[in-house]
Each structure stands twice: as structure tokens, then as C-alpha cells.
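Subject: Sanity check before I submit

Could someone independently write out the C-alpha cells for this chain? I want to compare against mine line by line before I put it in a report. The sequence has 49 residues.
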Amino acid sequence: MNASIEQCIRHLSALYRGPMAIENGLCLCPLQDPWDKLIGLRGPSSSTG
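---
Independent answer below. Compare away.
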């Protein structure tokens, strides 16, 4: 996982599911905030393979 996503998880939320690969080489990381709302972070995958 990207370092900024890891920092967000530590300070603001909990990893809900994933990260998971989606279309066009992107990755989706759903997070759950302290009020049980889901937030989806989408961006390029950091994996190389």
C-alpha cells in the first residue's frame, strides 16, 4: 500500500476491504471512518506484478 494511504488508515479510519484492483490498472481502497461511513480511495496500483 501507498505510504499516504497507510497514514490515513492509522489516523482517520479502518481498512474496510482491499485494496483491490479495478479497471485501467487502478486500485480501490475502501476505508471506514469512525462514524461508520465508507470512503473509497482510488489511484494507481503500487504493485509491480
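---
OP: Matches mine. For the report I'm noting this point. The first strand starts at residue 14 and ends at 15.
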